[in-house]
Amino acid sequence: MAFDLRPKLGFRQDVLMTPQLQQAIKLLQLSRLELEQYVETQLAENPILEESAGDAESPEEAVHAEREREQTEQQAVEHRMEEAQNIVDRVGKDAPETVDWESLGNSDEYQSSASASSIRRTNSGEDDQPNYENVVSRATSLNEHLMGQVGELDFDESEKKIATVIIGNIDDKGYLTVSVEEISAQEGFALDEVEGILDTIQRFDPPGVAGRDLRECLLLQLRAGKLKNGIVEKMVESHLHHLETRNYAVIAKALKIPVEKVVENAAIIGDLEPIPGRPFGAESAQYIVPDVYVFKLGEDWVVSLNEEGLPRLKLNNYYKGLLSKKEAQGSDKTYLQDKYKAAIWLIKSIQQRQKTIFRVAEKIVVRQKDFFDHGVERLKPMVLRDIAEDISMHESTVSRVTTNKYIHTPRGIFELKYFFNSSVSKSDGDSVASESVKRMIADLVKVEDVKHPLSDQKIVELLEQKGIQLARRTVAKYREQLNILPSSRRRKHY
Asked: Where does CATH 1.10.10.1330 sit in the chain?
């Protein structure tokens, strides 16, 4: 057998991704924070790019501002020097008129004291000051914070026991998880005594602690802050669901007051803390900056991009001018041309990224309108292909757009991927989103008897009564995704 090693010519078509296309795809899947960091890197590497400062000040204004800054700093320095001199003068007045430094330096008592101090520092290897690097701090838990306040009150043993039981049934969020009737029955306390101690604890710090639900928690904070005015309590007591959706017109009509008055009182409620236990024993909160805002305007839901915080890029006029002049030649001109093309492509890619996010969010809002109107119970099954067909793009593009992108709605902040759910069939032939089924499971567990919590099989039977047929292992999977413990670990003993 002979092998032919001669070269041959042929034609073949391959799909290749250019560096510009790779960059565009990369920008599409970056989160908001990653995009900001990437743009900062490009600003440092590409001289053609610069950040638009908006209303730029004139050179004369810049010189004037610099002079004012220097004068302010000089005045601050002179003020600090004057304060230091005043301190020295006061110390001089309080000190003895004459000090025998020579006798003080030769004093045996002084020498022995200094020597002892030196020996002590030498032996220990440390100064007399405490080593703060060796101090380990721990955040105070809500339970400890409340029990510390109990210790400050003149309670007898019986009252302390009642307070301990009440505080022991307050969860990490600051809510009381059992009723006063249950505490009275289980521990043998008089009902009026339990209610009296609970009223005392509800006046503790933090405001709103020991509320049995969100409504009572907010009312306690209004009482503590002396913010009651008649209207705000009615809004909390009867119109929390309207406040959540910012349906101020309905509240105004029900209370027979102007919409402006509703908005004014809604601002008071918005400043309250729905989770009183948040500052105690918890990790620092990780804040999410949404990429898209959704709000209701009349009967329609409106989508708006969040452009705040994103750098506004533009081309540097000086380097643009060099490209058209003869000074830039050879390798310098080639370098500037490459950077110019890269800058143009980056600006276009960011614009395309924002446009794609907007289109995807817009179609999500259209398809999930029932969710925005009524809540998660009306969330519809939806897959990436549905949105991809609506915007005439590939599913992989929609997947990149919805990863680590967040949408702010009146019902909370959600990742865009949250709205994509598999369907669960119902007995009537209809289907429901898996996320809606998870909410049903969470609601069932929320109202269960803590002494006899619902098993996975019992949840299956309750869902069947609503026309939803699920296997027990599927219920267990959903329960784990909701971070709900098994029934054996949810059982409480009093």
From this structure: 142-270
- What is the tens place of the pLDDT at every residue in 279-304? 886 555 567 889 999 998 888 899 99
Compute CA distances 79 → 65, 75, 82, 88, 382, whole Å: 21, 6, 5, 14, 66
Instruction: Report pLDDT digits (tens) over 357-398.
Output: 999 999 999 999 989 998 888 888 888 999 999 999 888 889
CATH top class, domain 423-490:
mainly alpha
Assigned CATH class of 142-270: mainly alpha
Q: Specify whether the CB–CB gap between 313 and 208 falls below 8 A.
A: no
Q: What is the pLDDT of residues 225-267, one digit of tens each?
A: 888 888 999 999 999 888 887 788 899 999 999 999 999 999 8
Long-range contacts, stretch 370-379, CB < 8 angstroms, 24+ apart: 371/411, 371/419, 372/294, 372/296, 372/301, 372/409, 372/410, 372/411, 375/411, 376/411, 376/435, 376/436, 376/439, 377/436, 377/439, 377/440, 378/436, 379/419, 379/421, 379/433, 379/435, 379/436
